[in-house]
Amino acid sequence: LGQVRTPGVFQVPYGEGMLTVLARAGGLTEFADPSGIYIIRQIPQIQRVRFRYADLVGAQPQSLAFRLADGDVLVVE
User: Fold this and answer.
1) Considering the chain, what is the average pLDDT of its residues?
2) SS3 for 8-36, per residue?
3) What does the pLDDT average to over 5-27?
4) Beta 73-76 vs 47-51: how paired, if at all?
């Protein structure tokens, strides 16, 4: 959702990470906040996890190690 070129619902293979999902959504628009990338996770409890684009493309280990789960929603401000 938000400032990605192709928002929508995507089937994500098990173990896929944030950078690949952003690529599936066409990347960030010119209006996107590169520090405002979030995953909303509802199971087992509601969490909001923030990412920075620079950390993802800069291969920051903690950002790259994050794996998506069923029902996660990616939001780009």
Assistant:
1) 91
2) CCCCCCCCCEHHHHHHHCCCECCCCCCCC
3) 90
4) unpaired
Query: pLDDT tens digits for 49-65?
Result: 999 999 998 988 888 88
Residue whose entry in the numeric block shows the structure tokens 């896929």: 16
pTM, rounded to two decimals: 0.85
What's the rounded Cα separation, in Å, for the pair 69 and 77? 21
Residue 2, C-beta contacts closer than 8 angstroms, at least 6 positions apart: 32, 75, 76, 77
Q: Are 39 and 28 in contact (CB under 8 A)?
A: no
70: which residues sit within 8 A by CB, 6+ positions away?
43
DSSP 45-76: S-EEEEE-HHHHHTT-HHHHH-B--TT-EEEE
